[in-house]
Amino acid sequence: MVYDEQFWGNESKVYAGWPSFQYPGLVPQIEAFREMPGVEFPPDSGAGRAGVYWFPTFMDPKKVQRSYARTGHYDNLNRSNYDLITKSKVKKIVLDEGTATGVVFQQTKLNVTTDSTIKADKEVILAAGAIHTPQILQLSGIGPKKILDSAGIDTVVDLAGVGQNFQDHPVLSLRITLQNFAIHPNPQDLLVDGNFSAWAKAAWETNRTGPYSIATGNVAAWLGMPAISPDRHEDIAAKLDAQDHAAQLPPDTDPTVIAGYEAQMKAFVAAIRSPNTAFYSMPVSGSPVPSSGSVLLHSLSRGSVNVNTTDPYDAEPIVDYRALSNPIDADILVEFIKFTRRYHFNTSLAAYGPRETAPGPTVVEDEDIMDYLRTAVSPTLFHPSGTCAMLPKELGGVVDENLSVYGVGRLRVVDASIIPTLPGANTCQTVYAIAEKAADIIKAG
To answer: Which amino acids does the record list as binding FAD (predicted)?
Structure first.
């Protein structure tokens, strides 16, 4: 296990840590990446370079338990200016002449729902996430006028970007089993080897060590397109550069949202050519099934999250991923499958008898692989982002650099919805960084 302390802080109350156990089968699976042209091994996951590396998880290494906002900030919090109202749902933000003055929320007791209002002395901070933050803004009359009119909501601020630019990390399912992978113990032994399973349980219950100290694994490949597709990444970049970007969005998309999307696609042309912009992520586990698939870290498709116009206040918002709506996403995913096959069949892992069952060895032509993609891609890794983007208003932005909503006084957004384009990584650290930066901005006045 390799990491570099210079890339990690030591003052946060939210911890990152390593488990006390790793499976021995990780060694050949990691080493096989060294045989892939263009794949590098940076000194740390925080070094800012694409490659194969170990990474910690949000775990308190002393208590060997999950470390997150609750344990870091909320537990044992005893402050006179902090109150938490549970089992409640925000209905809308109260606006007075374009200024946020409070929040209306609902509580249901004995099947009776009542509305209550809390007034804000200074400002309202909205942190409902990329799904519900745009919903609350739209319910408050802040959003695209066409959608608000359809829902019967009076428009207070016509802000086209609210609920648009929706992104997530699509996951491509692919199954290749190493039939002769007789390296034990491995994760499957927890299910089939009674002695190992009993030992693992005892180790955890006795001193919180062993396999159960592993969360989701600690090593993965995060690779740029030049490593994934040495022969085709330049063609894919050129195709994106020549693409009619507006045609990839719904026909009624606001011109400012189109302009923002075009700016993003221009940046992604360069990103596809960069060896250090990770597009592909695949964890390995030390199991006979090293990984169940790969993740597209920079989808070019954009969806939306809008109120349900037939029942805006009581129904959940309409979430439209529009996965693979930009066909170049499919071009990239085809290259993902080819790379993953080379990793299993053209490296030292071939000695372990790889057998592909999905999509299967007969699916080799690009068109056939694309047909498979349409049934094998999940649109989400549960990283929803982008629906209230921090961009200039003329590019479809919703908040400025101070997290303030355009056209509304005393209202900020602090969550993943402000991320203009998803990072080439999981979103947890990014959201923590947004929150910490927001705290500095708010305290500075």
So the answer is: 90
Residues 178 and 286 in one domain: yes
Task: Judge if 371 and 440 occupy the same domain.
Answer: no
With respect to residue 315, please indicate whether it lies within any of the assigned structural domains: no
Per-residue pLDDT tens for 314-347? 999 999 999 999 999 999 999 999 999 999 999 9
Q: Are residues 437 and 430 in contact, defined by beta-carbon separation less than 8 angstroms?
A: no
Is 162 contained in some domain? yes
For 53-108, write each residue's pLDDT tens digit: 999 999 999 999 999 999 998 887 888 888 889 999 999 999 999 999 999 999 98
Whether 118 and 32 share a structural domain: no
> Residue 108, Cα to own-chain centre: how many angstroms?
32
Residues 405 and 280 in one domain: no
Same domain? For 125 and 270 the reply is no
Distance CA 78, CA 76 (A): 6
Contact between 148 and 154 (Cβ < 8 Å): yes
Structure tokens at 366: 């690009």
Residues of the binding site: 90
Which residue bears the tokens 């954009």?
A: 302
Which among 357, 353, 359, 362 has a CA at the least distance from the CA of 333? 359
**In the chain, how many domains are there?**
2
Q: What is the pLDDT of residues 267-294, one digit of tens each?
A: 999 999 999 999 999 999 999 998 878 9
Looking at the fold, whether 144 and 265 belong to one and the same domain comes out as: no
Domain range for 231: 5-70+171-298+324-378
Among 378, 408, 424, the domain-final residue is 378
Please check whether residues 328 and 402 belong to one and the same domain: no
Angle between helices 233-242 and 255-273 (to 10 degrees): 160
- Give the residue ranges of the annotated binding site for FAD: 90
Strand order in the sheet with 112-119: 88-96, 99-109, 112-119
